[in-house]
Amino acid sequence: MTRFKGSSREHTESDLRCFLLWCAERDLDPRYLEPFHASTITTGSAAIPDTSHAWQAQHQCWNNGLMDSWVTTHIAVDGPGVGPYTMAYYTQEDLPFHWALAEALWGLPP
User: Fold this and answer.
1) pTM value?
2) Burial class of residue 17 in the structure, from the number of CB atoms within 10 Å of its CB (0-12 exposed, 13-18 middle, 19+ buried)
3) Does residue 38 contact residue 88 with C-beta atoms inside 8 Å?
4) CA 4 to CA 9: how far, in whole Å?
5) CB 83 within 8 A of CB 33
6) Is 67 left (phi over 0), alpha (psi -120 to 50) or beta?
7) Which of 22, 6, 80, 86 lies closest to 52, judged by CA?
8) Cβ atoms 46, 90 nearer than 8 A
9) Would you kindly state where each structural domain of the chain is located, as residue ranges?
């Protein structure tokens, strides 16, 4: 079985297939993963896996200010089933309690 070396572990062909399937299920291009809405209204996205917040991983994402290594770093660190979630985002509709808390504490506009 072919292995692909990531920064923190080896990835197998099944890891790659898992990532490609993950993209296909979401109609995403695996060559360029743009930010995507993780709707808690229409999907179970409130329970998506958490990506690494480790110092080393975050600085690899930062890539000396280029800010272009989020997906590749998190796939290497967290695996292909979790790494792509680094590009997910929520809206006010998805997290009304957290949004209201931020508005109350920091005076953010509604």
Assistant:
1) 0.67
2) exposed
3) yes
4) 9
5) no
6) left
7) 86
8) no
9) 7-106
